[in-house]
Design a protein that fits this description.
two-stranded antiparallel ribbon; about 270 residues; alpha+beta
Length: about 270
């Protein structure tokens, strides 16, 4: 006589995907699609899904912001060395000797960007030109998406024999340098110690003295012969005296005189570079 197998001991195993309803178990890096799929599987309403998406976006933005500041903190702990590698010293009859140091322009941005990249950061610039001048905005962005910016505005550098494009390019180059220094907090380490100061207003604009100092320094550093610089003061001196205080205008004039003396000495000594 045969017997039917007993039903005792039979087990039913549910192999359907299981979802832990605890919000703490949602991966912090869940993509928006993952959030939507999970919500749909749980039968959430579109309104609730939208709120979940907004919450996820705010969470990710806050995490990106924290990661940015942590990276900047690490960058500032060991910042790149941007020393004042160019010394200027000149003597003006009746005024004594003036000396100061400043950082050359050649590799400031390159050094900073290389150091930033070690912490997942990168810098970029945008430029706007209008009747108020040229505005350069430097933006530093972290690999997780958070970014912060600062802007400076100045007039085109029409000094010397620059054409319109060269005048714009000269100003843009200087503003790129100054904005990245300000945004990384390296400005006080690098700024010149020749007695000048900012306008202190925090409005992102350079003082007239700063603008003329930039123009003059650009011409002085680029000049390789007396011909390159000899006409600069006659062309620009009247405007310098009109826009600046007497002491400030004298500093600009003295910079030109000092460079002229250097070039005169070179031309008297054939075979040496300026």
């Amino acid at each position: 006589m045969s017997s039917n197998p007993s039903n005792e001991g039979l087990k039913v195993i549910d192999k359907r995907p299981q979802f832990d309803e605890s919000p703490n178990n949602l991966p912090v890096s869940a993509s928006p699609n993952a959030v939507v799929i999970m919500a749909m599987q749980k039968g959430y309403t579109p309104e609730l899904i939208e709120k979940m998406m907004a919450l996820q976006e705010r969470y990710e933005a806050n995490e990106a912001r924290k990661a940015y500041h942590e990276a900047m903190s690490a960058f500032k702990t060991n910042p790149p060395e941007i020393g004042k590698d160019k010394n200027v010293s000149y003597t003006v009859q009746g005024k004594g000797t003036t000396s100061y140091a400043h950082a050359s322009l050649a590799n400031v941005t390159g050094k900073i960007n290389r150091a930033l990249s070690e912490h997942g950061l990168s810098a970029g610039w945008t430029t706007i030109q209008n009747d108020k001048g040229i505005t350069v905005t430097c933006t530093i962005t972290h690999k997780f998406g958070h970014s912060e910016s600062t802007s400076l505005t100045a007039a085109p550098d029409t000094s010397g024999s620059k054409n319109a494009i060269q005048a714009i390019g000269s100003t843009v180059s200087y503003l790129e340098r100054y904005t990245i220094l300000a945004l990384t907090g390296l400005a006080t380490h690098d700024m010149d110690d020749d007695g000048k100061g900012g306008n202190g207003s925090g409005d992102g604009k350079m003082t007239p003295y700063e603008q003329w100092e930039i123009k003059c320094r650009d011409v002085c550093e680029a000049a390789q012969t007396l011909e390159d610089i000899i006409a600069w003061w006659p062309d620009n001196g009247p405007a310098v005296k009109k826009e600046l205080k007497k002491a400030e205008a004298a500093k600009i004039y003295d910079m030109v005189v000092a460079r002229k003396k250097e070039l005169e000495a070179v031309e008297r000594t054939p075979g040496q570079e300026g």
